[in-house]
Design goal:
The complex is a heterodimer of chains A (360) and B (306).
Chain A lengths: L1 E2 L2 E7 L6 H25 L4 H14 L1 H23 L7 H18 L5 H29 L5 H8 L1 H13 L32 H17 L1 E2 L2 E2 L2 H11 L1 H6 L4 H28 L9 H11 L4 H18 L9 H21 E7 L2
Antiparallel strand pairs in A: 1-2, 2-5, 3-4
Helix pairs in contact in A: 1-14, 2-13, 3-8, 3-9, 3-11, 3-12, 3-13, 4-5, 4-7, 4-11, 4-12, 5-6, 5-11, 12-13, 12-14, 13-14
Chain B lengths: L1 H29 L7 H19 L2 H25 L4 H19 L14 E2 L9 H5 L1 E2 L1 H19 L1 H11 L1 H6 L4 H27 L11 H11 L4 H20 L6 H23 L2 H7 L13
Antiparallel strand pairs in B: 1-2
Helix pairs in contact in B: 1-6, 1-9, 1-10, 1-11, 2-3, 2-4, 2-9, 2-10, 3-4, 3-9, 6-7, 6-11, 7-9, 10-11, 10-12, 11-12
């Protein structure tokens, strides 16, 4: 690009930025992104400094609430990072999450008399299975779809049948007979996930954190830059160079089937926690965690340890967003979109620098 | 009979909404850039054009600003995916989420507020043809523009030098670059044209078709557009056919409420899209078919000048 006799061009770095330095680059790009969001606020007549100040204050007051919001975001983020690594772009986590909520509620309504120690694990297992099944069409389209982006389109389109199914369930068969409003009855007492006393944090946080660490340990942990396990290695190779992986005899279909099953299941688990730990009943609308989860996964660098941090960040945004009066609920998606773009740009600068030279 | 004509009339109205962004996306994909941000661009410009029309009391100013916003948003995708050579899929997803977020802020002042929207203009002689006239020629002007755009887009893509340049850039960017063609410039123009068409589609949605603004107004129809480009086999004439088929699916949910339960009908557009994609996916997975159809080979492959 030439501007006033000076040429600006990109130069490949000899050593790409990695490790702790990459974290700093990413954080500075994140701050730039927050600045851009602030500008958008400013153009729409909202004082960004006041808004950010309010958001921080609310979070300091409501730390337990932030941690409660962190649970579904972490589960979805971890679930998405694994298929993203193999370049399967599952953006339908929202649908899998809703299916998880429906299955959990359905299981609870079917067996309200089972003791909690059996009922709650059963809800998790059922939801994981149905969430995984909901994700399988994406695998088929990714492997056999015949054109670019089929997986993305199909995974998104599958959100709507799930949403309309929930709409119908709460407006007819599961409608609360006591109030008659379009939400379901409260979940039976045995189906409610216990909370840490005095806080809204339900104890599936330990399950989700354990899964995050296990996934890190088994799939992402590297020795000299090479993943330690066979599956982790295959995910890495197929994501970076699918052709090389296939030539080496790896089954692309098998690997993405495993990753997507896990992804759908994790989103569903997030749904179980939300309905049995937080809201205790189904409503007409869902919270949109599935879409925020995409930004959580990318901001975390598709690494479970990074995702723990980025899920906390987005949970804080979510809780802080409640503090902004007169701002619609889509503000979280505004942040998510901006963050995705700035993460993409930061990845560019891991590998390139901008240089300029005078043209004579 | 009256009811049937009304139904076909509303199929045309719904189909126009699918047709406009599909034409734009065909150009973007023909030049090799997959823009998955259609949904975001449509919903943001639907909100923006409604808000502008509300505050200026001028519908056409609203349409214009809707198109401008579409162009600006698509330019973000172009910068990230062309200049910075980042993954087009992720950038498009980002654009969709960003657009959805923007729509909430841009439209927050006009939720549920009524304004004068685009009026139906009856074309003098044509609208008097029995049946046909009532179905095709009693619509807002944007619908007529869409009729004209189909042959124009087809002609430019297949019969002019510009069209050859666009298709060669999407087919083999290296070869085009070595011929001295400015690959990135052509891709930028095509993506921004796509953004303007999505903006026009969004403006039409809120100002000409549904005549209101509320959050989540698109109901994911932007993703159907991306499927439509495939169903249309990257051809403007195919886009015309496909849009009318999907327009029919979209309208059916209001006309068959007595026959089938509502949730099933609401799912119809999305499920039928998935079904179409499955059939097309099987057809297109053959390499021979792909070359006959002319699906852009370099689609979604970042082009780095070596």
């Amino acid at each position: 690009m030439k501007i006033y006799g000076t040429e600006i061009y990109f130069q490949k770095r000899i050593d790409p930025i990695t490790g702790i330095k990459a974290v700093f680059v990413r954080i500075s790009f994140l701050l730039l992104g927050l600045g851009v969001a602030g500008l958008i606020f400013l153009f729409n007549g909202i004082n960004p400094i006041q808004a950010y100040y309010d958001m921080i204050q609310v979070n300091l007051l409501l730390i337990p609430n932030t941690i409660a919001r962190f649970i579904p975001l972490l589960a979805i983020g971890i679930g998405l990072a694994v298929p993203f690594k193999t370049r399967v772009d599952n953006i339908g986590a929202e649908g899998q999450y809703i299916i998880g909520m429906l299955t959990a509620a359905g299981t609870a309504f079917l067996f309200p008399d089972l003791p909690a120690i059996i009922l709650i694990p059963l809800m998790f297992i059922n939801s994981f299975i149905l969430g995984a099944i909901w994700a399988i069409p994406v695998v088929l389209f990714r492997a056999k779809g015949g054109f670019q982006g089929a997986d993305v389109v199909v995974s998104f389109l599958l959100v709507f049948p799930a949403l309309y199914l929930m709409e119908w369930l709460v407006s007819d068969p599961w409608r609360d007979p006591e109030t008659g409003f379009t939400y379901s009855s409260l979940l039976p007492v045995n189906a409610r996930i216990p909370k840490i006393p005095g806080t809204p944090i339900y104890i599936s946080i330990f399950l989700v954190l354990a899964i995050a660490l296990l996934i890190y340990y088994y799939l992402f942990r590297t020795v000299n830059g090479i993943p330690k396990t066979k599956l982790g290695y295959e995910i890495n190779v197929l994501g970076k160079n699918p052709l090389a992986g296939r030539v080496a005899g790896m089954s692309f279909f098998k690997v993405i089937l495993i990753t997507m099953t896990f992804s759908g299941g994790m989103a569903a688990i997030a749904g179980v926690g939300e309905v049995a730990g937080n809201s205790l009943r189904l409503g007409v609308k869902s919270q949109g965690y599935g879409f925020t989860g995409i930004a959580v996964a990318y901001l975390g660098g598709l690494n479970p340890l990074g995702i723990i941090v980025s899920a906390l960040f987005f949970a804080a945004l979510k809780v802080g967003g409640l503090a902004l009066t007169g701002i619609p609920s889509t503000v979280l998606q505004l942040f998510s979109g901006i963050v995705i773009f700035f993460v993409l740009l930061s990845e560019f600068f891991f590998r390139f620098t901008i240089k300029s030279r005078k043209l004579s | 009979m009256v009811n049937t004509i009304l139904m076909f009339n509303s199929i045309v109205a719904a189909a126009t909404f699918f047709l406009l962004p599909t034409l734009g996306e065909i150009y973007a994909e023909r030049s090799g850039i997959l823009n998955l941000g259609i949904e975001g661009m449509i919903i943001a410009s639907a909100a923006f054009s409604y808000a502008i029309a509300y505050s200026t009391q001028n519908v056409w100013l609203g349409v214009l600003f809707g198109m401008l916003l579409g162009a600006v948003l698509s330019a973000i995708h172009a910068i990230v995916s062309i200049t910075f050579t980042r993954t087009q899929v992720v950038s498009g997803i980002g654009l969709t989420i960003l657009g959805t977020g923007l729509s909430g802020i841009l439209g927050r002042g006009v939720v549920g507020k009524a304004i004068d929207t685009l009026e139906n203009v009856n074309i003098p002689i044509l609208s008097e043809i029995p049946y046909i006239g009532e179905i095709f020629f009693e619509h807002p002007i944007i619908v007529y523009i869409s009729y004209l755009l189909v042959p124009i887009c087809w002609f430019i893509l297949y019969k002019t030098r510009i069209g050859i340049l666009i298709r060669s850039v999407g087919e083999n960017p290296e070869a085009a670059y070595n011929q001295g063609i400015n690959v990135n410039l052509i891709r930028y123009l095509c993506v921004i044209f796509g953004g303007m068409m999505s903006g026009l589609g969004g403006a039409y949605l809120s100002l000409g078709y549904l005549n209101f603004w509320s959050e989540g107004i698109t109901q994911g129809r932007g993703w159907i557009v991306i499927a439509l480009v495939v169903v249309a086999l990257w051809n403007p004439l195919g886009a015309f056919l496909g849009s009318y088929v999907f327009g029919a699916f979209d309208v059916m949910q209001y006309y068959f409420q007595l026959l089938l339960p509502t949730p099933v009908l609401k799912m119809a557009p999305h499920l039928s899209t998935i079904l179409f994609l499955a059939i097309w996916g099987i057809i297109l997975s053959g390499k021979k078919v792909k070359s006959i159809v002319g699906a852009p080979t370099a689609l979604a492959v970042p082009f780095e000048k070596s």
